[in-house]
Amino acid sequence: MGRGQLILIEGLDRTGKTTQTELLLNNLSPNAELIKFPQRQTPIGKIIDRYLTDKSYELPDQAIHLLFSANRWELIDSIKSTLDSGKHVILDRYVFSGVAYSVGKNIPGMDIHWCVSPDKGLMRPDLTLFLVNEMGSDSRAGFGEERYESVGMQQKVRKQFDLVLKELGDATVKTLNVTGKTIDEVELMIRRQVDNLLSNPNEEYHHF
Ligand code: T5A
Hints:
One of its GO terms (molecular function) is dUMP kinase activity. The chain is α/β, with parallel strands linked by helices.
């Protein structure tokens, strides 16, 4: 039996990542696990959660960036063992979010190269599906509750995502325009891409 495949769903806030990663998990069950980043239950994740939900809790932008990356490193060994065991791992956000949100803040020195450096060595996904909702994240329920959920910030991050995916992505990154699509329609779009991957799975690991 070969290794499991690493499948990432990316996008701006409220584009349906959680909805779709959970549906995909059900579809691939029992041969898959789901990990959502930030993983807010770990010691580092708890600090990130406080930063996102409590706007009066200040941290330097560089420090929170490094914590988001450290949160991925906290889980990478467990991701690797799951893949080695033949199970697929579905990720809800990962390195591309880490870089795009931080570069989107326009802090001197925090360019793409600086931002990706702490993630260097993490495993590359075998497939990345970047969900784009042209109607904007604010069209979806619950938007505005957390720190980065403002229309201005989402527009900046949207621009950065394009640059980041061009610079750090490869042919395994696909953009899915989900504007005006129902949850079932998006699920089908994702299933097609995942079925393609699973009919021709990767054996070797690649890294950022
Ligand atoms: N961040 C994250 C960084 O800055 N650096 C990093 O390294 C990482 C990993 C939290 C924040 O952290 C930042 C980015 C974020 O600002 P998060 O916890 O993933 O990251 O936060 P969100 O993206 O906001 O996650 P959400 O769970 O809130 O949004 P989802 O998962 O994209 O959307 P979802 O599935 O919860 O759907 C939102 C709403 O839309 C509806 C759903 O029912 C739900 O009500 N919906 C649809 N409605 C109509 N049509 C469809 N097709 C729909 N699909 C879903």
